[in-house]
Write a structure and sequence with these properties.
2 domains, 6 helices, 159 residues, 21% strand, alpha+beta
Length: 159
């Protein structure tokens, strides 16, 4: 199952027949793995990695580090669940290290994200502090390179 999950995570659009060859299984066995992984909740969805800059569409992504204060009746899971319920939030991750939660959001402008942090996130009772970092450029995401392909300007002489 692990090898199948790695394949589908890397390329969810790969035809089952091709996966079957790579796994050394029949297409029917591979389809059964797919069905089982879906039924058990191992596969949570599919994503396309879009180069928004290349598409010419303005979009701002931010990573917000949160220090929170979980109460006895309300641990990290409940706080994270409350934050995840906001439509603006793409991801909420519990972290080890210098902060507790990492929140990733996407907006149309820096101001839109700043207002979300100031008016919706910071006022939450369990949030002690926030630190927002804005994504400036993507070089690699989801195992895929985003950097521009530089033209090879060298001249070649054939003898």
């Amino acid at each position: 199952m692990e090898e199948f999950l790695r394949l589908i995570e890397h390329n969810p659009m790969m035809p089952l027949e091709d996966m079957a060859v790579l796994l050394g299984r029949t297409p029917e066995e591979t389809a059964a793995l797919f069905d089982e992984a879906t039924a058990r909740g191992y596969i949570r969805g599919y994503a396309a990695y879009v180069d928004w800059d290349e598409a010419g569409i303005s979009r701002v992504e931010a990573f917000i580090e949160l220090h929170v204060s979980p109460r006895k009746s309300c641990g990290f899971d409940e706080i994270a669940g409350n934050i995840a319920a906001f439509d603006e939030v793409d991801s909420v991750l519990l972290m080890s290290g210098s902060y507790d939660l990492l929140v990733m959001i996407t907006g149309k402008s820096f101001q839109e994200i700043a207002l979300f942090v100031a008016k919706r996130l910071s006022p939450l009772d369990d949030v002690l502090s926030t630190s927002t970092s804005f994504l400036l450029r993507t070089y690699k995401r989801g195992g895929r390179l985003y950097q521009d392909k530089e033209a090879d300007e060298r001249e070649r002489t054939v003898l």
